[in-house]
């Protein structure tokens, strides 16, 4: 995967800056405004924004590599960069006036998107009244808008279908609730709003957004969620695993002494296996993004992409486990980059939607066609 020359420099600059602040972001549980601004300046927020709104309208192959470049320096910054880019997929499914509200002043708007349905929504003249709390909203502190999914399924939903609601920053606050093992700098706090009016033109059905039903973009083929959403998880982890590999390379380059001397060759073998697993994950992602960028996406390819995203994440987690073992006890000390990369990777692998088993069953059962 390669990043075009015109943006390679700004991405590299953002990555370098994020790297100098990675330990601080981890300790303080927030990526700095300076790094967020560098991510925006590198074009991540506008990456997938349609050209009609002034966006770059670039592809997913380049995006994945650019996110991984940031992730090799700071996983949390890469996570925010990736989500900033992918949010545009959902914004493009809003009515045109809603898109204009968000992108009318420019394509670099930072949108925090929450796909899990929470909160309550009541239909009123001209729109909805929205209330509630939404957990794990990465980047909420830096966001200009939020895309919130609601209502929460169950008796209080009134039988309403799940929708996406676009809400401007002035209408919501957040509670500092993010204190996690890994990805500490993402600031994935709890967003809160109370009885906020959301006009109909800032609302769409979640089902439509999931099937990629964009509005005002004639000729663009729908991009269903399973075919691409896994990249938001795996691309930052690809970078983190590369960062861990670079740290471990320095360790295996020095012959171990003392009790570790007998394990020297074993560490070298583990390093080679980890490097191979990272390469294999990258190849899976390259094939998946080529399918997405190619514009011809069948249900079979979408299911294969979902499988490959989950498998790539598993490979990267296994590789990072090996690399942490190479570092031994010293790599587990506070402040050591290997344990930070490992914590970040393991934090991402805990997400329910990225478990391999559901993706594998969907893939295998799909081979036989509809039941």
Automatic annotation (TrEMBL):
On the tree of life, the source organism's domain of life is Bacteria
Organism of derivation: Streptomyces sp. R44
So what family is this one in? Answer: Belongs to the HpaH/HsaA monooxygenase family.
Coiled-coil spans in chain: none
Phylogenetic lineage: Bacteria, Bacillati, Actinomycetota, Actinomycetes, Kitasatosporales
Instruction: Provide the protein name.
Output: Acyl-CoA dehydrogenase family protein
Q: Which UniProt keywords apply?
A: Oxidoreductase
What do the Gene Ontology cellular component annotations say? cytoplasm
Which Pfam families does the UniProt record give?
A: Acyl-CoA_dh_2, Acyl-CoA_dh_N
Gene Ontology biological process:
fatty acid beta-oxidation using acyl-CoA dehydrogenase
Q: Where is the Acyl-CoA dehydrogenase C-terminal domain?
A: 231-355
| Span of domain Acyl-CoA dehydrogenase/oxidase N-terminal | 6-81
Which molecular function term from Gene Ontology is one that the record holds? acyl-CoA dehydrogenase activity
